[in-house]
Each structure stands twice: as structure tokens, then as C-alpha cells.
């Protein structure tokens, strides 16, 4: 029945009861052995999410704006080639990047050593490893943001840009005051 019984038949509860309340949580958040790693891991999680979204969206948007120009040569061919990272499975892409960042045989390390005489320690330094993770994630995710931004840019009416040109707005003013606000509404 889930309890022990004494020889006289009374139920005995195993162990002893001690009121813990919040002391375990207090020890978890104030103990130096857990507080330091917990703060670093939480900061990296938020930093990864922020920088990943910022970099991926920025590159995807820049490519979408660049190829949104009707006079850009070979636009369809280049856009098709830029979508290739989206079609390759992530595991294979990560393995390829691991090989390219290899300090012994990697093409990226050899190129950086040839150009600058120095290559970052991608696998041994925590900050360079985090940068490498952001770079690989950028490679994996920019095609998605490029496709989303391309679709959203096509939904913005050309009338806004024509009116802005009549008013004398340059490209950066059009981007800041027309493209970005309307794009963020559509993408958001």
C-alpha cells in the first residue's frame, strides 16, 4: 500500500520530513558554483538569439533589396544560387563548416593565415567559437530571411517610391522612411 508497517500495525512513513520551501531555490541562485555559469549561459542564449536575428535579417534584407533592382544583371541566376544553403540539410552544412574551420586543413584557416599570417582559434577560444557559431547560423538562415523579405518587398507599392523621388528623397531616405517601416509591418 506504499507504506511500511510496524509490528503493532501502525503505518510508518519512510525517511523524515523537513520543510524546504524556497531554500533550494535560494541556494541555486546565490551559490557561486551555479550562479556564474547560469548567468554566462543565460547571457549567451539571449546574445545568440539577438545577434543571430540581427545578422540573419540584415543580410537577408540586404540581398533582397539588392536583387529587387530590376536592372540587376543575372538576377534570377544569382538568386537561385543564393538559395542553395537553404536546400542543404543543416547537419551536412555544419559538418562542411567544421571542416572549413579546421585549424589543420581548413580552407578558411589557410586563407586567413595566407592573408594575415594568423587564423582565429575557432575550436579552442570561447569567443571565437561563438563567432563561428554565429557565422554558421548566418549561412544556414539568411536564405529564409531573403525569401521572406523579397516577398514583403514585392508587396510594397511603387507609388510610394515615385512620390518620394518627386519630393527629392535619395535611396537611403526612401529605405529608412518607406521600405523599412512597411517591410517590418509585413514581416512582423
Question: Can you offer a commentary on this structure?
Answer:
It is a single chain. 70% of the residues lie in helices and 2% in strands. The protein is built from 9 helices and 2 strands, in the order ββααααααααα. The protein has helices at residues 23-30, 32-66, 75-82, 84-87, 90-100, 107-116, 126-154, 158-166, 171-187, and strands spanning 4-5, 11-12. A two-stranded antiparallel ribbon has the order 1-2. Strand 1 (4-5) and strand 2 (11-12) form a beta hairpin. The chain is elongated, with a radius of gyration of 28 Å. The termini are far apart. The mean pLDDT is 89.
Quick recap of the structure?
This protein has 9 helices and 2 strands. With 188 residues, the chain is mostly helical. The longest helix is centred in the first third of the chain and has 35 residues, at 32-66.
Amino acid at each position: 500500500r506504499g507504506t511500511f508497517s510496524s509490528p503493532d500495525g501502525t503505518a510508518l512513513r519512510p525517511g523524515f520530513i523537513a520543510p524546504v520551501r524556497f531554500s533550494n531555490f535560494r541556494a541555486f541562485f546565490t551559490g557561486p558554483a551555479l550562479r556564474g555559469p547560469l548567468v554566462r549561459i543565460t547571457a549567451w542564449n539571449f546574445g545568440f538569439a539577438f545577434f543571430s536575428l540581427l545578422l540573419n535579417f540584415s543580410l537577408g534584407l540586404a540581398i533582397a533589396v539588392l536583387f529587387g533592382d530590376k536592372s540587376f544583371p543575372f538576377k534570377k541566376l544569382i538568386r537561385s544560387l543564393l538559395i542553395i544553403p537553404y536546400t542543404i540539410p543543416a547537419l551536412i552544412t555544419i559538418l562542411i563548416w567544421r571542416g572549413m574551420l579546421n585549424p589543420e586543413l581548413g580552407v578558411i584557416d589557410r586563407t586567413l593565415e595566407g592573408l594575415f599570417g594568423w587564423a582565429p582559434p575557432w575550436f579552442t577560444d570561447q569567443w571565437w567559437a561563438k563567432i563561428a557559431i554565429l557565422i554558421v547560423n548566418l549561412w544556414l538562415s539568411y536564405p529564409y530571411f531573403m525569401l521572406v523579405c523579397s516577398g514583403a518587398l514585392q508587396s510594397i507599392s511603387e507609388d510610394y517610391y515615385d512620390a518620394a523621388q518627386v519630393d527629392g528623397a535619395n535611396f537611403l531616405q526612401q529605405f529608412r522612411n518607406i521600405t523599412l517601416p512597411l517591410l517590418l509591418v509585413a514581416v512582423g
